[in-house]
Design brief:
It is a single chain. By secondary structure, the protein is an alpha+beta fold. The chain folds into three domains: 64 residues, Roll (Structural Genomics Hypothetical 15.5 Kd Protein In mrcA-pckA Intergenic Region, Chain A), CATH 3.10.290.10; 94 residues, Pseudouridine synthase (2-Layer Sandwich); 123 residues, Pseudouridine synthase (2-Layer Sandwich), CATH 3.30.2350. Helix content is 22%, strand content 28%. The strands form two sheets. Strands 5, 6, 7, 8, 9, 10, 11, 12, 13 and 14 form a ten-stranded mixed β-sheet that branches. A four-stranded antiparallel β-sheet has the order 1-4-2-3. A hairpin with a 3-residue loop joins strand 5 and strand 6. Helix 1 packs across helix 2. The radius of gyration is 22 Å and the shape is globular.
């Protein structure tokens, strides 16, 4: 029995020119845009009998044939790892991820991830994210702590992904950043792409993906600030890149200039304090504090607020006594 999904679409006469992947996402609601884009890249989407690119601009009366292979069964090993679960039902889980935990298996991290723990806890998760990212609607960096929502089934995953894509999901982060801000409240808008010099880093560039971060200073210290941030987009390392770009890197963030690189501008006493604080904070001081979204099935808005993790709280306590 063939379990692949096949679709055949003829572009309507009144259809405006539009990207192929966007058009198909609107027409085939049961398949995520990511899976459609992967199918296009693999040559499984034909336009007038020939493979087409995702960026192809469709025309009226074109015949589009789509083959979406059945997702492979997830074969990642479940692991009995403790989870800090704030909410759970038949459709989703909201949890508070600890710093140091990788979200999903990837090169050099095939065990001990959040996905391994979730598979042990749930048994089954949404297949939309693929075999190595089951249930994962959005991610946090390994050393970023905080709130995540995970989908148990494809219907929940697709609806949560839609909210994420349309920027209706509320996401508030708190961070300790270097220096006092001249503007206590502002919006950072740039394009972000992978650094051409180091593929593990992201950077602000002339060509890239639109990235928007809103920030507001909550509390100021001698040479650090407590800042809350709201994301309008969800790019890799977005907050860390944006704050570094405006001269206020996340405290203890070695990748984006938030550790010893700032010492040259400090007075002697400040350097002593900074060195002590960096010993207390081996990871970047960033926490996903608030998460809000409309439940994909129950159709009600849900909002979760988490306490700062112990390492960040101790950092703030020390700053308040200085």
């Amino acid at each position: 029995m063939d379990d692949d999904k096949f679709f055949e679409i003829v572009v309507p006469a009144n259809q405006e020119r539009e990207r192929l992947d966007k058009f198909l996402t609107q027409r085939i609601s049961s398949v995520s845009r990511a899976r459609l884009q992967k199918g296009i890249a693999e040559g499984k989407v034909l336009v007038n009998g020939r493979p087409a690119k995702a960026s192809h601009l469709i025309r009226p009366f074109e015949k589009i044939e789509v083959c979406i292979p059945k997702p492979k069964k997830v074969d990642i090993s479940p692991e009995n790892i403790p989870l800090n679960i704030l909410y759970e039902d038949d459709h989703l889980i909201v949890l508070n991820k600890q710093a140091g935990m990788v979200v999903h298996p990837a090169f050099a991290n095939y065990t001990g991830t959040l996905v391994n723990a979730l598979l042990h806890h749930c048994g089954e998760l949404s297949s939309v994210g693929g075999r190595q990212r089951p249930g994962i609607v959005h991610r946090l960096d390994k050393d970023t702590s905080g709130l995540l929502v995970v989908a148990k089934n494809d219907v929940a995953h697709q609806e949560l992904s839609r909210q994420f894509r349309e920027k209706s999901m509320e996401r508030e982060y708190w961070t300790v950043a270097w220096w006092r801000f001249k503007k206590k409240k502002d919006k950072i808008e740039t394009l972000i792409a992978r650094s051409p010099k180091d593929r593990t880093r992201m950077s602000v560039q002339l060509v890239g993906k639109e990235s928007i971060t809103n920030y507001e200073v909550i509390e100021e210290f001698d040479f650090l600030s407590l800042v809350k941030l709201h994301l309008e987009t969800g790019r890799t390392h977005q907050i860390r890149v944006h704050l570094s770009y405006i001269g206020h890197p996340v405290f203890a963030d070695a990748t984006y200039g938030g550790r010893n690189r700032q010492f040259g501008s400090l007075a002697a006493r400040q350097r002593e304090v900074a060195a002590e604080l960096l010993q207390r904070m081996p990871r970047h001081a960033l926490h996903a504090k608030v998460l809000g979204f409309k439940h994909p099935v129950k159709d009600r808005f849900m909002r979760f607020d988490s306490q700062l993790p112990e390492d960040m709280q101790q950092l703030l306590n020390r700053l308040r006594t200085e």
